[in-house]
Amino acid sequence: MPLIIRLLSLFHVVTPPLLLWAIWRLGYDRRGWKLQTLMAWIVVPVNYFWRPGQDVNWARGLFFHEQHAMPGWAYLFVYLVTVPLLVYFPAIFLWIG
């Protein structure tokens, strides 16, 4: 793969500091976790059913490995409840205090 194409992946280095700066500069909207939850409830099931081979958001198992401890639909339900409660909602307390 050409070097210029590989260098394009460096946006992963720039994006997190840029997003943190934007939140610091513009502020955090308290409704953000609700909108993010709604978006996840739409996008993750679509990814689960439509592109099972491309599990980019861990809708089938953690760390890109499909889990077999419970039925897939049960894991998806637990995922859709757990991620907003443990990731999205606590962001309010990190940014607003």
Which features would summarize this protein structure in a list?
97 residues, mainly alpha, 5 helices, flat
Summarize the SSE layout with pairings.
Elements lengths: L2 H5 L3 H16 L5 H19 L21 H17 L2 H5 L2
Helix pairs in contact: 3-4
Description:
The structure is a single chain. It contains five helices and no strands. It has 97 residues and is mostly helical. Helix 3 packs antiparallel against helix 4. It is flat and about 45 Å long.
Quick structural gist:
The chain has 97 residues and is mainly alpha-helical. The chain has helices at residues 3-7, 11-26, 32-50, 72-88, 91-95. The chain is flat and about 45 Å long.
Helix tally equals 5
Kindly, what is the distance between the CA atoms of the first and last residues, rounded to a whole number of angstroms? 45 Å
Largest sheet: none
Structural class by helix and strand composition: mainly alpha
Mean of pLDDT: 83
The SSE order reads HHHHH
